[in-house]
What we know:
The complex is a heterodimer of chains A (about 300) and B (about 280).
Chain A: H1 4-43, H2 46-49, E1 53-54, E2 64-65, H3 68-99, H4 102-117, H5 120-147, H6 163-187, H7 191-199, H8 204-214, H9 216-232, H10 235-240, H11 258-265, H12 275-309
Antiparallel strand pairs in A: 1-2
Helix pairs in contact in A: 1-12, 3-4, 3-6, 3-9, 4-6, 5-6, 6-9, 7-8, 9-12, 11-12
Chain B: H1 2-45, H2 66-96, H3 101-115, H4 118-133, H5 138-162, H6 166-174, H7 179-190, H8 192-208, H9 235-243, H10 248-275
Amino acid sequence: MGQPREDRLFYYSLLPFAGATVAVVLLLAAVLGYYSLPALREYGASVIVGSEWRPSEESPREASYGLLVPLLGTLATAAIAVATAVPVALAMVVATEEVLPPRLRGLLGGVVDVMAAIPTIVYGLWGLEVLAPLLRRHVYPHLNSALGFLPPFSCRAYTGASYLTAGLLLGVIVVPYIYAIVREAYRSIPSKYRLAAYALGATRYEAVRILSGMVRPAVAAAVLLAFGRAAGETVAVALVVGSAFNPPTCLLAPGYTIASLIANQFGESFYYPLMANALYLGGLLLLAIGIIANVAGLRLLAGARSRAGL
Amino acid sequence: MPDYRLAKDRAFTILVLALAAAGVAPLAHLLATVAVRGAEAIARAGPGFFTEAPAPPGSRELGGIAPALAGSLLLAGASVAIGVPLATLTAVFMHEFPESRLARAARALAMSLLEIPTVLVGILVYSIIVVPMGRFSLLAGGVALAIVMLPYVATYVERALGQVPRTYREAGLALGMTRAQVVFHVAMGVARRGVLAGFIVGLSKALGETAPLLFTIGGSRAVVQASPLCPGDAVPLLVFQLAQTPYENWRLLAWGASLVLVASVLLVYLAARLLVREVRL
C-alpha cells in the first residue's frame, strides 16, 4: 500500500468505467419502465392479463394490447426447450466424463463448443428451412393422429412453424449452456468419491447415480439459466414460431413469444398509439424473467461451488 | 442378480450414447446444410458475392452481400472501440478493488447482462440514441454490440488478471511502481493471452448477434455504406430479413451469408483456442 495518493487517483480514474457498466443495466430497466407506464395507465392490468391484440391507428381506446398470449408462449417454448435439452445435455456430460474413450472426449467437448459458438440466426435459418418442414411432414401428422385427444396435440399443423417447433429449436440452442455448467460441476467432484464407488464394485450406472446426486444443485442452476436464455432468444424464434396470437394450449399451432413479438412489431409500432408502450412493457417482463432466472441460477451455482470446496 | 445389474448398466450406456448422438445430430446436419447451400450460393453468385449488393427480389441473379460485409466490418470497429476499453477498465476495477460496493454491483450486473435478452439492448439503444439522432446508424448498432460484448470481455479479462501470480505484482510494487503501473505494465503483459482471447470471444459474440441490430442500423442494403453515421446492413440482419421473404434468390443469399458467418465464427474460435486452452463461449 505504498502510494495511497496515486492509488486513490487510480481508483477514481477507473470509477467512471465501472460506473458506466452498472449504469447500462440500470438505464435499461429505467427506459423500459418509463415507456411502459403510458400503456399501464391507459389499460391497467389488462395489458398483462388480457389476451386480445387489436392495434388501432385511430385511437388508443379502440385498441387492445394484451400480452398474455406471448407471455404464455414465452414460458411454454422455454419450458419445452429445457425439458428436451436437459436429458440430452446430461447424457453428453456422462458420455464425456464416464463412457467415451479419452480421445473422443476432447472431440465431443469441442463439438459442444462449436454448438455454443454458432450464431442463433443460423439456427433460425436451419429451423425455418430444414427443421420446420421436416417436423410438419414426418412428425406432426403422427403426433396429431396418435395423441390428438390431448389438448397440446389436438390441432392440425398446417405450417411447420409452431410453439413446438420453436421450443425444440431452442432446445438445440441451449444444450451447450446446460452442458458447460453441469460438466464443470461434475468435474469438480473430488475423485475419491468416484474411486470409492468403483472400489465397492459399483457398475458405471451405479457410480453415475451416486455422483449425479452431488451435481443436483448445478443441474437446477443450469435449468434456470437455460430457461432464461431460451425465454430471451429472439430471431431464431421469430423465424419458426409462426407469428400468430393462438394460445399455447395447442403446441402445434403457430404462436408468439414476447421477444418475437417485439422483433416483428416494434419497428411498425409507432404508427399505432400506445402499441410501442405495450411492447416496452413486454420488454420489461422479459427483463424480469431474465434477471430472476439469472439471480436464482447463480445463487444455486455459488452454493454448489462452495459445497464442493468443502 | 449380478446379471441384472450388468444389464442395467448396459442399457444405461446405450441410452447415454444414443441421447448424446441425438444432441450432436442437429449440429452435424446444420453444419452440412450451411456448407452445401452456402457453397451453392457463392458458386452461383461468383466473385460478385463479395462485391455486389443483393439482386432485385425474384430475379435470376443472386447479387452479393457486400453492403452487409462492409456494415459488419464497421460495426466490428465501432463496437471494439467502445466496448473493449469499457470492459477492460471495468474488469481492472473489479479485480483491483474487489471489495468495493461498485465492483460488486458491476460484477453482478455484468453477469446479468449475459442473461438479459439482447433484443432489449436494441430497444435501449433505439430509445436513447436512434430517436434523439433522428435516424438509424451503424454507430448506434456499434453501441448496442459494445453492450453485448461487455460482459464476455469483462469476465475474461478479470479471470486472466486473477491468474497472474502474486509474485509478479509484488515485484512490481517492490520496485516502487504504482498500482496502476503494475496493472498495465506487468499484469496485463503476463495475462495478455487471456486478455486477447477475451477480446476475440467478445467480438465474435457481438458479430453473430442479430437482435440488437433490428431497430438500430436500419438494414439498408442497396449500397456499401462507408460512414458510421449512416444506416447500414450487417450479415446476421441480412440473413434474418432475407430468410423471411418468399424470393428464392434472396433465400439462397441468406444461406451464403450464413456460411460466411459460420466460417468466421469458427476461425475466431480456433484463434481463441490457440491463445488459451479452455474457451467458454
